[in-house]
Specification:
By secondary structure, the chain is of the alpha+beta class. It has a domain of 102 residues: TolA/TonB C-terminal domain (2-Layer Sandwich), CATH 3.30.2420.10. The protein contains seven helices and five strands; from the N terminus they run H-H-H-H-E-H-H-E-E-H-E-E. Strands 1, 2, 3, 4 and 5 form a five-stranded mixed beta sheet that branches. A hairpin with a 5-residue loop joins strand 2 and strand 3. The protein is rod-shaped, with a radius of gyration of 67 Å.
Length: 229
């Protein structure tokens, strides 16, 4: 019996075609690869990039050449002068005081405060208005009123014209109690003012005022009343 082969089962028939197709595909891949690898690379240059690079450049400045400072002046040369004295010449003996001697002298000396003369003279001439102890008439205010009533002589012209009132007088009581610098602070009539100043001038010495235990000059005010009976 003869064995027959089928065309569908024959594997050798399509072997050449498959080999040809594979070689064609391989050649095509190699061609594409060469074309892709040898393509020209174009580098684009832009003016904007050049401007940015130029702006970022850092300017390097060099310090100006300054002349060096002048050299310092040479120090003066001090030459020591030695006086040669012969042995047979007598020299004057000088006392050499040490710091201990000065300290001893300073401890022995006592401090003497300067005399305050100008301040005392100024305080003596100063006139106070209010002091710790005010001046007063010998015997007090009661004796002062009695003295004024006994000493006042009513002016005739003021009596005839019916003039009366109170004259305010001021004066200074010195450190010895004497009354000076009388004046009228508030007057009533020239005749009454004149009589009030006359009585002030005849007053005896007052007890002077004191400030810090020392007598001082004090300005004092006294009203003198004129009244018709």
């Amino acid at each position: 019996m003869e064995i027959k082969k089928s065309k569908k089962a024959d594997l050798e028939g399509g072997k050449g075609l498959s080999l040809f197709m594979g070689m064609a595909i391989a050649l095509a891949i190699m061609f594409v690869g060469f074309e892709w690898g040898t393509s020209d690379v174009v580098v684009a240059s832009s003016d904007a990039v050049a401007d940015v690079i130029a702006e970022e450049e850092i300017e390097i400045t060099r310090p100006e050449d300054t002349p060096p400072p002048p050299p310092p002046p040479p120090a003066p040369v001090v030459s020591e002068v030695l006086n040669v004295v012969e042995d047979n010449v007598d020299l004057e003996q000088q006392e050499i005081l040490s710091s201990e001697d000065n300290q001893m002298d300073a401890q022995v000396q006592t401090y003497v405060a300067p005399a305050v003369v100008e301040e005392e003279e100024e305080s003596a001439q100063q006139i106070f208005t209010v002091v710790e102890e005010m001046p007063h008439f010998p015997g007090g205010e009661g004796e002062l009123l009695k003295f004024l009533s006994r000493s006042i002589k009513y002016p005739v012209i003021a009596q005839e014209n019916g003039i009366q009132g109170r004259v305010v007088c001021a004066f200074v009581v010195n450190r010895d109690g004497s009354v000076v610098d009388g004046e009228v602070l508030r007057g009533v009539d020239p005749s009454l003012d004149k009589e009030a100043m006359r009585v002030i001038g005849t007053m005896p010495k007052w007890v002077p005022g004191k400030q810090r235990g020392k007598p001082v000059r004090v300005k004092y005010t006294v009203p003198v009343t004129f009244r018709l009976q």
